[in-house]
Amino acid sequence: MKLEAMAVLLPEVAGHPNRTPFSGVLTLVDEPSTKPPAGARGHRVILTRAAALAALPSLLGMAVDCAPSWDGHDARRKCGIITHADVEGSRLTVAGYLYAKDFPEVERQVRQSAPGSMGMSWELADAHVADMRAEIWTLTRATFTGAAILLREKAAYRNTSFEIRPQRCRTLAARAGRAERHHPREGAGAAFRNSSTRKENQWKPREKTWAR
Question: pTM here?
Answer without folding.
Answer: 0.78
